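Its record is retained below.
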Amino acid sequence: MAPKEISHSYVDVRINGKWCAIDSFIIDTPYLKAAKARLASEGRTLGYGVRSDSVNVWDGKSDAFSQFDRKLMIEDHGRIEDLDAYIRSSRYRTKFMGIQLNSIFKLMGEAGLAQGNAYLESIRNPVNITTPLP
C-alpha cells in the first residue's frame, strides 16, 4: 500500500548551536537489525521502511536517519507549524488512490492495525513467523 511518493518528517534539534536533523528514533533496534538483514539477503538497499545504511542511535552531534535520505527528497516543504493543515493540503503526498494513508489505516480499524503489527513483528522476529507475509 505504500504510495510512490510520501511526505516524511524529521526533527531538527539544536545542540550547542548546531542544528541536527534526526528520525533515528522511529525504528527500534530489533526491527532495524532484522530489516537490514532481510535487505542484505535480498541484495537491496531500501525497503521495509529502512535503508541498508540506516541508524537508529543518535550521537547527539550529527544528523541521524533511520528512514530518510536527503538523496531521496523530491521537495523540501520546510518547517511545518500546523501539521493538520499541512496534511489537508495538496503538498501532503502520503496518499493511496487519492486517500490519505493514515485515513485508510483508521478505516481498517483494530483488525487492520493487528495485521500490520503482525507483519512488522514477522520482520522483527523472522523465526517466529506465525502469519503469512502479505
